[in-house]
């Protein structure tokens, strides 16, 4: 997998950045590892050159140790006795920047090849199968200067996983039999990303940066760039091997392991398995050529976007701030230019109707140089006033020069960073291991945890150097829109672009002001003792229900509040659904400026729409949360809705709906499936049409109607006691005054797939083909869910192996358990750049026929690991307070509110028999729905009719439904 290094994320209301991967919904199987622990020897101790304990939070109860092996490998081991998964990540400080000119994508291709067998484990799927058979997952990514390999696994299987993982860096086979097929997979990955807007902009940007800078090349690779060399030259496999030996050694590698085993045990395992990685005295490659030729600036660029989105970005070459992490000289500048509060650059542009989003910060560093980027999401009016926006940006920069970089502002940022460090939540082991291995590769070992938060003191001279770089003469200005046309096309992502002459000097807007001291910074961060096992009823009335769970296990004085405002009219029509979305969007938009300082101080608010109404979400420190709740409720009930705010929010919604056909194809297919099998549901086209009928008065009328007929559910999960939670719940109830009951609210109903095989087509403009096949269970009972989970897990690995690795149908291939609410089902998906949907469907048919034959021969002993894997997965602990709160919150949306649903299912899957599986299988085969797409296909016009002909999927088991 190739990771883009220049992704930009937009948000209507500030929220902390998240990074995520698209992964299979299936649950992997679990087998007992057959690798026995070994005893420490003098040889393993001799492999350790040095150990150190890094700086950690006083509230972090885990044990840490950084090892330096004699071969130069740095290793961070973290012992977390409560972890129910073990994880490891190896970061290699080599990436696409090291690709040779005649084999672009070679580093990425090497990443793929390392998975295909090693000397002790020669099977091409041996590593993947071991990970999967032990309830694990794995992946890798290649960036410009890094290649990262990672996995997680059931903890008892960690020694065996490390055996196999370490051999990637000791004895890879570079499997010749899979060379061509893996090249096809790399090409499929390229084609799956070819319409991504961030990659398209990056492709144009690379044409404008210094061509001698190694980070400006094509990183993904394709069939053409990775073609076999002419006869007489070194073969492609030989080039891969040469690249590996030239760039991979222990001195450029950094390993992180997070596991429940003690540190001494983990140290032994590391020394035994990784001490023999070659030490060839290599060092991390450096990039000497500047990122930008300063003599070419300024430059004004326009490029065509495929999505209906207008963006204006200003890129300024600056020094790479990585080595300045102790003082962070660019952070205050980024904070002030990216501020969204009253008087900020964004607030001024929003008030003028020119922009609806903005971000600022340093990215794309190469060790020496980087780009300071200001990204602005424009309205149509903003697209007509680019020069005025530029002038306003430089007026904001001048304001910083004159009065912005005060010591108290730096100290305020430092205080917030320290709060974040003290109460950081670590997340899933795999996620953390990957983050730590990356951090280990960039910072001194003692700061591997602290570096992102550390601010030792203001370096005024260094800070001034960054500010001095933000000038009109040191700028790349990028404007992107759908109506840009040019004969010049970028080489790899087919983006039309052109260079423009500078326009006339713009007129800066008035109203800019620097933020005052943040009034939302929490002062009481005391951790309350007390731990509940699950939420319990706090308030129970016919019109209002509230649950509470006190939690201390995450060592943070934070609370997650969720408040669901439910009204029966929101699901009556597409028009009512649009008005619900507009109301939630307006509430976020209208609070953006006033609550931005709260977000900076660790308090977050957002409103999101759903089929029953909208949910208000409050996340952050316990201290200060009550005023935040009061402010949000007051805004919802009493604030005026201006014409400009309404038009801004409607434009954002319409833009999102218009851009939906350009989105990821697998996401569009999933949306089509939900539209067909859940009621009530509305298509994007229906919602877009409905949105065009409204003005501000309609939204005002809807708000009044919505708030006058409510049923309310609420939940508080976190470090708060019942007394405070009850006080806040009473505040919410008194303000909203709900008068409906739960029975008055319509439910979102899963429908039973038709007995007749059907094919639907999504509304997409993508260039790939896809089949999403959905196999549905017979009913919504927990027993049916458990049996369907077991079958899905049993199918997952062979489906991937056959259709992706062997048949090379595409890069995105997966099968797994995919419920629609409580309706159990299995989703099988293949997305391909080359193979049409009919052929993919035929391959799926063949796979399912063969699976039926394997099922007939399956023994209970062979099924047992699959049952155990699911049970283990369902019992895994939550790794964040927000994740736990969301899981419990989702349970309140079901008719039968149960907070032990996961443990119930974990018990049930252990009792799934072979007969249960064989009885369910024919019904799954008989109740399927395909979502298919080939480039140029028209969207299905009969989805509404298809849905109308279906009945609700039964909630109880009916033996007569068995075929």
Give structural notes.
The chain contains 29 helices and 26 strands. The chain has 963 residues and is α+β, with helices and mostly antiparallel strands. Strands 1-2-3-7-4-6-5 form a seven-stranded mixed sheet, with helices on both faces. A six-stranded mixed sheet has the order 10-11-9-12-8-13. It has a six-stranded mixed sheet with strand order 14-15-20-16-18-17, with helices on both faces. β14 (536-540) and β15 (544-550) form a beta hairpin. α17 packs parallel to α22 (722-736) and α23 (782-806) packs across α28 (914-926). The two termini are 42 Å apart.
Low-confidence stretches: 3-40
Distance between the termini: 42 Å
Annotation, overall tally of beta strands: 26
pLDDT averaged over residues: 92
Helix content: 25-40%
Query: What structural class do the secondary elements suggest?
Result: alpha+beta
Number of helices: 29
- Gross morphology: globular
Q: Sketch the major β-sheet.
A: 7 strands, mixed
Radius of gyration: 28 Å
Strand line-up in the sheet with most strands? 1-2-3-7-4-6-5
Beta fraction:
15-25%
The oligomeric status of these chains comes to single chain
Descriptors for this entry?
963 residues; alpha+beta; seven-stranded mixed sheet; six-stranded mixed sheet; 29 helices; globular; disordered N terminus
Fold blueprint:
Layout lengths: L41 H5 L1 E5 L10 E7 L4 E6 L6 E7 L13 H8 L12 H8 L3 E6 L4 E7 L4 H9 L12 H15 L3 H12 L27 H12 L5 E7 L3 H12 L24 E6 L5 E10 L11 H7 L7 H7 L3 E9 L5 E10 L1 H4 L2 H18 L3 H16 L6 H12 L19 H9 L7 E6 L15 E4 L35 E5 L3 E7 L7 E9 L7 H27 L2 E8 L2 E9 L3 H14 L4 H17 L5 H13 E2 L4 H8 L4 H13 L2 E8 L3 H15 L12 E2 L7 E3 L8 E8 L5 H25 L5 E6 L7 E8 L4 H21 L2 H15 L6 H11 L9 H10 L3 H13 L1 E6 L9 H6 L15
Helix pairs in contact: 2-5, 2-7, 4-8, 16-17, 16-18, 16-20, 16-21, 17-22, 18-20, 23-24, 23-25, 23-27, 23-28, 25-27
């Amino acid at each position: 997998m190739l990771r883009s290094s220049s992704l930009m994320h937009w948000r209507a209301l500030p929220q902390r950045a998240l990074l995520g991967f698209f992964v299979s919904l299936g649950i992997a199987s679990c087998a007992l590892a057959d690798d026995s622990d070994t005893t420490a020897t003098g040889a393993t101790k001799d492999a350790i050159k040095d150990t150190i304990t890094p700086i950690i939070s006083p509230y972090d109860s885990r044990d840490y140790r950084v090892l330096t092996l004699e071969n130069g490998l740095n290793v961070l081991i973290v012992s977390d006795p409560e972890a129910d998964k073990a994880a490891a990540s190896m970061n290699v400080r080599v990436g696409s920047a090291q690709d040779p000119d005649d084999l672009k994508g070679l580093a990425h291709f090497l990443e793929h090849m390392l998975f295909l067998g090693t000397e002790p484990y020669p099977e091409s799927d041996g590593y993947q199968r071991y990970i999967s058979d032990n309830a694990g997952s794995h992946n890798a990514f290649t960036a410009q200067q890094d290649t990262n390999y990672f996995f997680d696994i059931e903890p008892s299987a960690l020694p065996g996983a490390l055996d196999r993982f370490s051999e990637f860096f000791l004895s890879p086979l570079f499997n010749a039999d899979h060379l061509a097929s893996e090249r096809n997979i790399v090409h499929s990955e390229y084609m799956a990303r070819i319409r991504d807007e961030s990659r398209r902009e990056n492709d144009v940007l690379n044409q404008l940066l210094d061509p001698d800078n190694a980070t400006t090349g094509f990183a993904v690779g394709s069939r053409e760039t990775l073609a076999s060399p002419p006869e007489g030259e070194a073969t492609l496999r030989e080039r891969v091997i040469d690249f590996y030996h030239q760039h991979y050694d222990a001195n450029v590698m950094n390993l992180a392991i997070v596991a429940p085993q003690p540190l001494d045990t983990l140290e032994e395992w590391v020394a035994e398995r990784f001490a023999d990685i070659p030490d060839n005295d290599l060092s991390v490659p450096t990039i000497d050529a500047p990122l930008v030729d300063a003599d070419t600036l300024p430059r004004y660029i326009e490029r065509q976007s495929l999505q209906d989105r207008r963006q204006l970005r200003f890129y300024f070459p600056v020094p790479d701030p990585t080595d300045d992490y102790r003082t962070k000289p660019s952070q205050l500048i980024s904070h002030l230019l990216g501020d969204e509060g009253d008087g900020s650059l964004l607030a001024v542009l929003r008030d003028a109707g020119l922009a609806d989003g903005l971000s600022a910060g340093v990215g794309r560093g190469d060790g020496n140089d980087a780009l300071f980027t200001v990204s602005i999401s424009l309205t149509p009016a903003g697209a007509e006033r680019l020069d005025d926006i530029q002038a306003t940006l430089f007026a904001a920069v001048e304001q910083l020069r004159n009065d912005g970089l005060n010591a108290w502002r730096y100290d305020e940022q430092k205080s917030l960073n320290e709060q974040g460090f003290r109460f950081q939540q670590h997340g899933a082991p795999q996620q953390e291991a990957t983050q730590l291995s990356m951090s280990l590769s960039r910072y001194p070992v003692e700061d591997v945890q602290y570096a992102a938060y550390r601010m030792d003191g203001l370096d005024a001279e260094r800070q001034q150097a960054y500010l001095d770089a933000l000038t009109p003469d040191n700028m790349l200005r990028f404007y992107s829109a759908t109506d840009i046309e040019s004969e010049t096309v970028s080489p790899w992502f087919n983006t039309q672009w052109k260079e423009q002459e500078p326009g006339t000097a713009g007129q800066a807007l008035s109203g800019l002001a620097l933020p005052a001291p943040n009034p939302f910074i929490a002062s009481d961060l005391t951790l309350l003792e007390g731990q509940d096992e699950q939420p319990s009823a706090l308030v129970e009335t016919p019109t209002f229900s509230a649950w509470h769970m006190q939690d201390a296990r995450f060592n943070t004085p934070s609370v997650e509040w969720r408040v669901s405002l439910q009204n029966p009219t929101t699901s009556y029509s597409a028009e009512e659904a649009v008005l619900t979305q507009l109301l939630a969007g307006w509430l976020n938009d209208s609070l953006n400026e006033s609550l931005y300082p709260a977000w900076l101080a660790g308090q977050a608010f957002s409103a999101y729409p759903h089929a029953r109404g909208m949910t208000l979400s409050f996340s952050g420190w316990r201290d200060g949360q009550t005023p935040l709740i009061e402010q949000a409720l007051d805004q919802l009930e009493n604030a005026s809705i201006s014409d400009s705010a309404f038009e801004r929010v409607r434009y954002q919604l319409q833009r999102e709906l218009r851009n939906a056909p350009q989105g990821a194809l697998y996401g569009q297919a999933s949306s089509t499936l939900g539209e067909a099998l859940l009621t009530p549901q509305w298509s994007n086209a229906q919602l877009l049409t409905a949105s065009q009928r409204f003005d501000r008065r309609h939204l005002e009328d809807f708000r009044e109607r919505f708030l006058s007929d409510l049923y309310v559910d609420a939940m508080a999960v976190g470090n708060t006691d019942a007394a405070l939670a009850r006080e806040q719940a009473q505040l919410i109830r008194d303000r909203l005054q709900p008068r409906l009951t739960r029975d008055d609210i319509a439910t979102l109903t899963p429908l039973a797939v038709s007995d007749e095989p059907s094919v639907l087509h999504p509304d997409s403009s993508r260039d790939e083909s896809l089949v999403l096949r959905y196999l549905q269970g017979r009913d919504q009972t927990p027993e049916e869910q458990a049996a369907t989970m077991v079958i899905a897990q049993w199918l997952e690995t062979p489906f991937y192996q056959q259709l992706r690795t062997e048949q090379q149908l595409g890069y995105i291939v997966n099968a797994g358990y995919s419920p629609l609410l409580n309706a159990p089902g299995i989703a099988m998906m293949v997305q391909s750049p080359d193979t049409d949907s009919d052929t993919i469907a035929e391959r799926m048919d063949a796979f399912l026929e063969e699976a039926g034959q394997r099922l007939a021969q399956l023994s209970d002993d062979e099924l047992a690991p699959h049952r155990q894997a699911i049970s283990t997965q369902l019992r895994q602990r939550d790794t964040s307070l927000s994740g736990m709160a969301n899981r419990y919150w989702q349970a309140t949306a079901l008719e039968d509110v149960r907070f032990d649903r996961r443990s119930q299912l974990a018990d049930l899957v252990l009792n799934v028999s072979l007969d249960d599986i064989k009885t369910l299988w024919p019904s799954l085969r008989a109740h399927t729905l395909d979502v298919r797409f080939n480039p140029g296909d028209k969207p299905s016009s009969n989805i509404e009719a298809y849905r109308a002909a279906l009945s609700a999927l039964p909630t109880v088991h009916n033996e007569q439904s068995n075929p």
